Amino acid sequence: MSFESIFGTAPDGSWRAPGRVNLIGEHTDYNDGVVLPIALPNEIVVTAGKRSDGRIAVSSVGHDAVIEFALDELAPRSVDDWAAYPAGAAWILRESGYPIGGANLLFESDVPTGAGLSSSAALLCATSIALLGLVDVEVDPAEVARLAQRAENQYVGAPVGLMDQTASMCCTAGHALAFDIQSGSLDQIPFDPSADGLTLLVVDVKAPHRHADGEYAARRKSCESAAAQLGVPALRSVAFDSLDETLARLDDEVDRRRVRHVVTEIKRTEDAIALMKAGRLREVGPLFTASHVSLRDDFEVTVPELDVAVDTALAAGALGARMTGGGFGGCIIALTATDSAAPVLDAIEKAFAEKGFTAPSALAATPSNGASRIN
């Protein structure tokens, strides 16, 4: 179905926002740490047209249903299902004083849903820049990311950090984005695996997100509780060099494991950034693997499919591999020599078949540009 056939009018333009994959720096964003995502070539495109009645209508390619709501009646969680995301973007823009108006919005996506590649952040960011674009209002990309995060926190009710939205808005092609949450600084780090004869495989393990929402919230609560016990504003303030002494001050063993993951993960991320800046990308692989071990043993957010995929990739010759995203399902990344990428994927597929797991899917991640207008 075309925009015209659904809404009966011609559109005024199209906008896009990509999904993302995080290279390293997992569960550090809500601890004021450092993250290192790239934008994917997979994106959500929204084709949009103005309307003058103060209402927004949304639909998606492949589905005939149209969901419609009034701008001035929006309140947190007043719209359900996937339409909560465009509704949330409209709500936060209005709440923040931006003069958006009614619109017809048609969405098309090739970002896999449920894979931990931030389709929700892409949906919020694409909607935001489309609604702003329709009224010719320019907003700094980093501010759009902050608005999108507030929409997901306050409207949708998901306690997400700021990494996903910032990656979708601010990444550039051929680079990873070093995002220091504490300072707010953004640094574009050269990242072009193909130039080094490497491939970054992203493998969706097709595992259901088991207890993901509740467990994510529990991990965040544990980190915040430990920070309070240590008398610091966030775990970013815990020095790596004095980690053992700091852990000894915590009574709860679970809290100690959570803190150890966050502090060591921040250090691994900083080390990865330094290696990438020095052009030593192959040496980043072991940091990926160490990150996965920490996420498995200390943060306890992996599932068997993720562990099997990582272990198999390493056994098949990957330079490094780790789960990426919040965990409890989703994807792994594997850094491989380009001529090893196909054998690594074949090995994972074979291992999954032997385990009786759902067959995985994969893509070769090319660092891509953040959100923009298409036409």
UniProtKB/TrEMBL annotation:
Gene3D superfamilies from the UniProt entry: 3.30.230.10, GHMP kinase, C-terminal domain
PROSITE patterns: GALACTOKINASE, GHMP_KINASES_ATP
UniProt feature coiled coil, ranges: none
SUPFAM superfamilies: GHMP Kinase, C-terminal domain, Ribosomal protein S5 domain 2-like
Enzyme Commission number, as recorded: 2.7.1.6
Record-linked Pfam families: GalKase_gal_bdg (PF10509), GHMP_kinases_C (PF08544), GHMP_kinases_N (PF00288)
Start and end residues of each Galactokinase N-terminal domain: 2-49
Family: Belongs to the GHMP kinase family. GalK subfamily.
Record-given protein name: Galactokinase
Organism: Kribbella antibiotica
Gene this chain is encoded by: galK
